[in-house]
Amino acid sequence: MPPKDFVSALEVAQRAGVSRSAVSRTFTPGASVSAETRKKVTDAAEALGYHVNELARGLMRNESGIVCLVVSDVATPYRSALLRELTSKLQNVGKVAMLINTDRSDGSVDRALSQAIRYRADASIILSGLPDASIVRLCLKNGQRLVLINRDDEEPGPLKINLDDFEAGERIVTAFARAGCRSLAFANSEAGTPSLMGREHGFVAAARKLGLEVSVERYGWTGYEAGRVLAQRLLTRTQRPDAVFCATDLLACGFMDTARHQFGIGVPQQLCLAGFDDIEQASWSSYGLTTFAQPVAEIASKAVEWLSTSEAADNILQHSVRLTAELIWRTSIRAG
Amino acid sequence: MPPKDFVSALEVAQRAGVSRSAVSRTFTPGASVSAETRKKVTDAAEALGYHVNELARGLMRNESGIVCLVVSDVATPYRSALLRELTSKLQNVGKVAMLINTDRSDGSVDRALSQAIRYRADASIILSGLPDASIVRLCLKNGQRLVLINRDDEEPGPLKINLDDFEAGERIVTAFARAGCRSLAFANSEAGTPSLMGREHGFVAAARKLGLEVSVERYGWTGYEAGRVLAQRLLTRTQRPDAVFCATDLLACGFMDTARHQFGIGVPQQLCLAGFDDIEQASWSSYGLTTFAQPVAEIASKAVEWLSTSEAADNILQHSVRLTAELIWRTSIRAG
DNA sequence: AACAATATTGCAAGCGCTTGCAAAATGGGA
DNA sequence: TCCCATTTTGCAAGCGCTTGCAATATTGTT
After folding, report:
1. Which of A199, B85, B261, B291 is an S-S bond match for A169, by CB 3.0 to 4.6 Å?
2. With a 7 Å cutoff on the CB, does A24 touch strand C?
3. How many domains does the structure of chain A reveal?
4. CB A142 to CB B5 under 8 A?
């Protein structure tokens, strides 16, 4: 491999005519160094092109500054938006993000976490999948913080950030009912994650309570293509629904496109549609999708805030936060 | 901070009744250890929950296994797709991605690279922005590989991966001409990056050569909103273009939506449109955008391939690769 | 059975850094 | 001017790992 030859603190010390400790202290916020020494050191460092070796520092301090982001489907609008917020906020508090892609086979979340341990990450944030309980314990035992976003695990220890999925499902039923819809459907993927199922359950429960007809259709992965297939299935039924709630915006886009372009169904005139996530495309004028906004910025804030809180305050802090998804009105549901 | 207490190789060694070196070698591929010792070690490691400390290993080996990805606008479809490919391919060769978000102020690319140096990254891949020449030299001097994607820098040393932007601009003119378009326009952002400008120049040059009318309009950042504004400007001209090439797909989507929904212009009947990137949305049936596909998978392959090649072969290898963007025909250009 | 060739092992040094401790320098009263 | 309280400084130990070297164990050959 490359012939790395980085300049070390020793070399800086020699050039500056001070001890290596002085160099170290100069680059340690809050350490005691006279202005004069500091100047000598920074000058020498500048001249030599010195950069603290965070590997060595992490080794000593037992704190690498690394936070692992465990994620699949990175290229998806919602995921990448969350990623943007997280990386940016992490950088603001002086941490750096290590991105682990779990698109591949099963058990990849566990592999990711073991990677996090090997790099002595200060924390891991899990956006996709669910780690095995044993590895969670291992992380926690090693003092590694864990946050689960929309994961809904029961294991105590990690910070769990969730949305009010069930309530969102309920709320949208009200909106559909107000628009005069009588026959509802929920278009879901087969992923079966708690957040998806929460939306479904809330939706179905509320519809039943109002005495509206309601059915559920599930297919594939949570993307545009699945939305097309689901539309295919739901819109060819003898009794076609007049309102469908799609588990995600991506699904909703596929659904809407198929309804309009393939079946010639007017949205929202003949069919009301709603989604979840509020991805950028939902606001594009081809869609104007009424949807629930995931508060990505707030999610990210909560996560990094928790990571940077001291161990002492840890017990006081609640380990579970529930945020509410705001309903964004656009034009895919008729006015009441 | 957390009371980390990871188990060390020493503890494993003691439990296994071998030397610490044996433990180290067990976890070093290709090292000499008998099957018997290896078993004792792995058992002990398993029982204790031992994980190699990559920080310490990186310190010794002078090779951290970290590759920095320097990127802005992570949440954009094209960028996140590239990210997906890169992270996944890096993991395949045993590297791990450190993601640095440069959305913020100026000079952030330089800050990112200095971060990369501090973590002794084996390499950095730059997807956005352009680093200062001095810091590039610093990276190279320290044996850190550098790859620039669509950056077009002149500095020797880094691997430069580029597309045939100019030729793409030319090719699309031919397509427009064949569709009977006579008055062309290029819708660009004000970013002015070489790849964007390449497309523009190729387009303008080819149009002139064919004696077609051609104009250029530039506005804002390379996103959906800019596309709307550009449409606003171009479509209210007294002599409205009948074909426009948008610098990116995101722009094109905004442009198309505005043309259709706000101006009631038929695409492709009254207006032919093309984009660049082939983001997922381009294939959605609301758009059916004819566009040039960035070979993201191939770009990622070339990048990580180069990173894992030996220093010796380095000189032989070319430091610049040019890939071609494939024209994907959909329905936003009339049939010839 | 004896020996050379090969494989495995442990020792110890060292990667670049931080930090407790004690010595040296500095400053402020009296 | 001298003494004590306060910074500032350097020393040296140690973080968890790898690896060259020499010693020991294993194997194959005749």
Report:
1. A199
2. yes
3. 3
4. yes
